[in-house]
Amino acid sequence: DPQDAIPRGTMLAIFITTVAYIGVAICVGACVVRDATGSMNDTVISGMNCNGSAACGLGYDFSRCRHEPCQYGLMNNFQVMSMVSGFGPLITAGIFSATLSSALASLVSAPKVFQALCKDNIYKALQFFAKGYGKNNEPLRGYFLTFVIAMAFILIAELNTIAPIISNFFLASYALINFSCFHASYAKSPGWRPAYGIYNMWVSLFGAILCCAVMFVINWWAAVITYVIEFFLYIYVTYKKPDVNWGSSTQALSYVSALDNALELTTVEDHVKNFRPQCIVLTGGPMTRPALLDITHAFTKNSGLCICCEVFVGPRKLCVKEMNSGMAKKQAWLIENKIKAFYAAVAADCFRDGVRSLLQASGLGRMKPNTLVIGYKKNWRKAPLTEIENYVGIIHDAFDFEIGVVIVRISQGFDISQVLQVQDELEKLEQERLALEATIKDNECEEESGGLRGLFKKAGKLNITKPTPKKDSSINTIQSMHVGEINQKLVEASTQFKKKQGKGTIDVWWLFDDGGLTLLIPYILTLRKKWRDCKLRIYVGGKINRIEEEKITMASLLSKFRIKFADIHVIGDINIKPNKESWKFFEEMIEPYRLHESCKDLTTAEKLKRETPWKITDAELEAVKEKSYRQVRLNELLQEHSRAANLIVLSLPVARKGSISDWLYMAWLEILTKNLPPVLLVRGNHKNVLTFYS
């Protein structure tokens, strides 16, 4: 039973050797004096005072050893054991056997351990020594390296110089082993289950400290060199972060610390000074909508929680299988791209149900999302009715759960899944091409017909067929060129938030008091390296006859909030009617979704309402005509003032649930943000996120 026998045998061996060493020390001390000249003539003169000297008591005067070096005695002669032994050669034989056994043990075990370290590829330069030879994978290169190191120490030819260095390295390894035991116990990892009955973690810590102290007692400069080497190796590993996982106690302690901190947070009440955007981002797979993730990461990095969410819709069994298979890959993609975010996914019968689950269940304690970030639904005019209902319903659900909403729109859209699919297909084709080239290379030296037949068979297995000319090939070429241009623009758009934005402006249209989220997000953006050259321009609504007063009031308010801004614009004509051309465009846009019940008799109108309840009625359109005017007019003002901005942050209009149809609301969002730079439509949950107090 190794778990029981090894600790017991080790402790017993330590006890026996300790008794033996103490016994030898006592025996030799009882036989040999401390210092001796080696001359039989150095006898005591009569009347001399011995002062407790053992040599003097035996009739010898070795007092001159106090002033000059002597060659004999316990302190000077390292062969005293042979000198006082009953049979001197036995001592020499013992030294040889002990040295050879230790040397052979080190020569065999050290290269094996070193080979395992090299296989982990922690230190890239040592990969050469990972190779093994023979059935047992013997580390011959490691044996040679060990031999070279051993010979280098032997050539020092001074045992008293070698011993402190070797002892220090052994003590360093013992100290690390002891500290590892302590650390594993301190981290309270369930996987750490020492079977030794009288184990105590504080004894391990004491052992580690004792080893470190003895290192300095033996030789302080050797101890310093050892620690420098240790710290260098540790810093290198910490910096490089090799792709290995040992289930270390450091991981366990990190988990315990994170858990303790999360629990401690729950005891602290929320305060407006500590508010930070904690976002759920509906990216789907994070690699499919990188621009949406990048802009969110820009104001959550190092300051708030960011969770990339995906909803798998369909049969539960298939969805769960697909979801589980991709979880690790997508989280790894986030880590690889240095995005500080988590990935979460749910399986649901419909998209809205999945998002509801995420909004309610995501997060932990105080680290719960308070902001929902979604991309603008660019294809809303062609989308099925259920998709529009789900999209608008998600916005309502977020407000019901007291979560703010951010809708992001860019001109090219976010979804690059088709581009990724094309890239995957091209990679497969490239692999097939390389495989074919390898096959041809393997067979190019074969001139026999059998070899050629084998080549054709292998080529046939690769499904390579001769292309057949088509009549509409020119049309296909034009279409493929057009698709390629679109894909190129899409790829460029997907990386626009990764680039440094340069000098420009972030235009903030703060039209509703939502608690301050519309101001806070652009302010955080200006703190980031990529956006710090952009200045904030604030636009607010006001009365034409009070523009200067309201400008001064707003400047005072922003100063109290300690938000730096380049300029403030008070828009006095925000509520006037839009131009006829703009309004006509809006009417043409909503025309396919209107019911036009006023042009029909009552029976027909009621029937149409029952059959298509989602359509925009004339009564509804008339009731919210002023709001529709406002959205169209706002776009005109945005075109006039913010067309050249790097980013527009705009208060999101909110549709009252049940009173405004989904299609009309989507038309509002469309007309509000069309033909503009990237737009963030922001609406907080009406909880204050800004304060006057620092």
Automatic annotation (TrEMBL):
It holds the Pfam family AA_permease. It is found in: Membrane. GO terms for biological process: cell volume homeostasis; chloride ion homeostasis; potassium ion homeostasis; potassium ion import across plasma membrane; sodium ion homeostasis. Residues 289-694 form the SLC12A transporter C-terminal domain. Its main location: membrane. Residues 419-446 form a coiled coil. GO terms for molecular function: sodium:potassium:chloride symporter activity. It is a multi-pass membrane protein. The chain crosses the membrane at residues 12-33, 140-159, 165-186, 198-222. InterPro entries: AA-permease/SLC12A_dom, SLC12_C, Slc12a1, SLC12A1/SLC12A2, SLC12A_fam. Keywords: Chloride, Coiled coil, Glycoprotein, Ion transport, Membrane, Potassium, Potassium transport, Sodium, Sodium transport, Symport, Transmembrane, Transmembrane helix, Transport. GO terms for cellular component: apical plasma membrane. PANTHER family: SOLUTE CARRIER FAMILY 12 MEMBER 1 (PTHR11827:SF93), SOLUTE CARRIER FAMILY 12, CATION COTRANSPORTERS (PTHR11827). Belongs to the SLC12A transporter family. This is Solute carrier family 12 member 1. It comes from Balaenoptera physalus (Fin whale).
